[in-house]
Amino acid sequence: MKSYLIAGNWKSNKTTNEAMEWLQKLSAISLGTRDSGQELSAKNNTFVLCAPYTLLFFMKQEIDRLQLPIALGTQDVSPFGDGAYTGAVSARQVKEFADWVIIGHSERRKYFGETDEVLAQKVAQAKTAGLNIIYCVSDENTVIPDGVDAVAYEPVWAIGTGKAETPEHANAVIAAIKAKTQIAMVIYGGSVTPDNVASFLAQSAIDGVLPGGASLDAEKFAALLQAVEL
Ligand code: PEP
């Protein structure tokens, strides 16, 4: 049986109160708990929510308290270690709260000018700190540094546009990435919703999805997690 990775990306959204509301809604939906032998989390699927840094402390406490079957991640990390790097958050600091990190998202490349070199430094820092890395690529030709744990294929035109890639084409690109890199876990991102998620998960090479907009709504995010059961 396939193991899926579903990784939500909140981007620059939500205050503590809004995060609390989301968590309460999610906990009211039956997803199982981390201790359950029968439910979603026990089936080797991995559910991750990549939150803003400002919410990590709070989210970690609440996810533990509510026993939600989701791991925490961040959406970026410093290319440097601890030290005199004003404004940056090091991988070691992230690891205090989270086990996952997204590196190389197209919005980081576009708005923050992140290059392949900087991204390779980020991967090295995250690896040393013991974070699981989801590395974003826009096609099968994007350079992928050694050491990433999962790749997210995200065609730029499909992100936040409501126009998802066709599942068949996403599958072909992901199969090509797998053949080229030997990375076993490759997921799709770009306007994934509860309505189209099953068509992506049904593809042979696709190991999960990275929803942005849909992850902001607890009910939609829960529906995406429940879709791994379809
Ligand atoms: C993303 O955040 O990487 C993303 C794919 O966003 P959306 O699902 O909103 O297109």
Which properties best describe this structure?
alpha/beta, 14% strand, binds phosphoenolpyruvate
Structural overview:
The protein is α/β, with parallel strands linked by helices and 230 residues long. Helices cover 34% and strands 14% of the residues. Strand 3 (71-74), helix 3 (91-95) and strand 4 form a beta-alpha-beta unit. Helix 1 (16-27) packs parallel to helix 2 and helix 1 packs across helix 8. The relative contact order is 0.16. Residues 33-40 have low confidence and may be disordered. Phosphoenolpyruvate is lined by residues 9, 105, 154, 159-160, 189-192, 210-214.
Which helices and strands, and how do they pair?
Layout: E1 5-9, H1 16-27, E2 46-50, H2 56-66, E3 71-74, H3 91-95, E4 100-103, H4 106-112, H5 116-129, E5 132-137, E6 150-153, H6 167-181, E7 186-188, H7 197-201, E8 208-209, H8 218-226
Parallel strand pairs: 1-2, 1-8, 2-3, 3-4, 4-5, 5-6, 6-7
Phosphoenolpyruvate binds next to loops.
Mean pLDDT: 94
Q: Ends: how far apart? A: 12 Å
Number of strands: 8
Number of helices: 8
The protein's oligomeric status is single chain
Low-confidence stretches: 33-40
Helix percent band:
25-40%
Bound molecules: phosphoenolpyruvate
Rounded Rg:
16 Å
